[in-house]
């Protein structure tokens, strides 16, 4: 119970699953995170690394409705299609050239496809990914890329689409995925057999 007595635990205020710290125990370190000047390790199959600064790393963010990430990309590195269920993301490119995009939610008309919005970004460019929509970033340059992004939640969450669909434990039933993706079962088996990287 985080070192609390039972009485203090019962009186503690939970916000977004986090206990609000006793104000008498708060220090400047609860509002401090060092190291966003350091590049993340991009030596993985996706060639990218997300360094989050949310309530899990910086307790002082609890209840403030904001967080931050640094994302590093090797040449041709990818932050794969994912979504933040609790946050809009605003991204600024510091270094490199990125191809970014997001997909609209399902249209009301079943005969209309989801719309893809894309843009090539350069240093100083800003792009917004609306809350809950699937989005991605791909370094199309031959050099490293760096971005910083603000998110409108102290705990935005992330669901990486391929990881969630093909890498869950236990796996989603083969019949469900075969029917959903309208492909042969061997394609689903192949995808489920892959190792799905988490770059956070």
TrEMBL record:
Binding-site list for oxalate? 79, 84, 89
- What GO CC terms are in its UniProt record? apoplast
The subcellular location is: Secreted, Extracellular space, Apoplast
Annotated Cupin type-1 domain residues: 34-189
Q: Which UniProt keywords apply?
A: Apoplast, Disulfide bond, Manganese, Metal-binding, Secreted, Signal
Binding positions for Mn(2+) per the UniProt entry: 82, 84, 89, 135
Q: Which residues form a coiled coil?
A: none
Under Gene Ontology molecular function, one entry of this record is: manganese ion binding
Gene3D superfamilies, sorted? Jelly Rolls
Q: Which InterPro entries match?
A: Cupin_1 (IPR006045), Germin (IPR001929), Germin_Mn-BS (IPR019780), RmlC-like_jellyroll (IPR014710), RmlC_Cupin_sf (IPR011051)
**Which residue positions does the secretion signal occupy?**
1-20
Q: Which PANTHER family match?
A: GERMIN-LIKE PROTEIN SUBFAMILY 3 MEMBER 3 (PTHR31238)
Q: Which family does it belong to?
A: Belongs to the germin family.
Task: Supply the name of the protein.
Answer: Germin-like protein
Q: What is the lineage of its organism?
A: Eukaryota, Viridiplantae, Streptophyta, Embryophyta, Tracheophyta
